[in-house]
Structure formats: C-alpha cells, structure tokens
C-alpha cells in the first residue's frame, strides 16, 4: 500500500511550522525553549529537521507547537496539497 507522503518527506507540516515561527519572530532555539516550558522536549536541531520535513512529528509535539505559535493545529496543515507529495 502506498504511503500518503513519499519516502523523503517525514511530515506534512514542516514548512508551515517554519512559516509561523518566522511570523512570530521566533528562532528555532526560542521555539525549542518554549516547548520545553510545556514539558515537550524538542531540541533546536530537531526543529530544523521537522521544518525541512526529514523528521516525523508526534501528536503531542504538534499540539505544543501550535500552542506556542498561537495557532490551530489545522493551520499547520493548510495549503498542503497531498497530490504534490
């Protein structure tokens, strides 16, 4: 059975995480620090890999990232055309 995303991309939300992080004038390290305050440990390097879609993201991480970025989880999936993957 074919996967929804190809073998190179490990998530669908990385580009939007980067977009909203930049809109919030937040560095990868600052996002990592804010996630840690919520008890979700994602190092700066992992943020980078999430954004370039080479790392998967757990549901707990998605929830916390959306909370820190003050957006809905749905916003992280907007503009994602599954047919392009």
Feature tags:
52% helix; 85 residues
Describe what you observe in this structure.
This protein has 85 residues and is mainly alpha-helical. It has five helices and no strands. It has helices at residues 14-23, 28-37, 44-51, 59-69, 73-77. Helix 2 (28-37) crosses helix 3. The two termini are 15 Å apart. The model has no long low-confidence stretch (mean pLDDT 90).
Q: Give the N-terminus to C-terminus distance in angstroms.
A: 15 Å
Low-pLDDT segments, ≥5 res = none
Total number of strands: 0
Biggest beta-sheet profile: none
Per DSSP, the total helix count is 5
Q: Report the order of strands and helices.
A: HHHHH
Give the mean pLDDT: 90
Beta-sheet strand percentage? under 5%
What is the overall shape? globular
Rg is 12 Å
Q: Percent helix among the residues? A: 40-55%
Class by helix and strand content?
mainly alpha
């Amino acid at each position: 059975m074919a996967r929804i995303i190809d073998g190179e991309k490990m998530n669908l939300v990385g580009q939007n995480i980067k977009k909203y992080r930049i809109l919030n004038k937040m560095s990868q390290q600052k996002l990592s620090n804010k996630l840690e305050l919520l008890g979700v440990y994602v190092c700066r390097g992992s943020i980078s890999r999430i954004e370039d879609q080479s790392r998967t993201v757990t549901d707990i991480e998605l929830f916390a990232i959306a909370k820190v970025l003050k957006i809905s989880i749905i916003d992280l999936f907007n503009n994602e055309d599954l047919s392009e993957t």
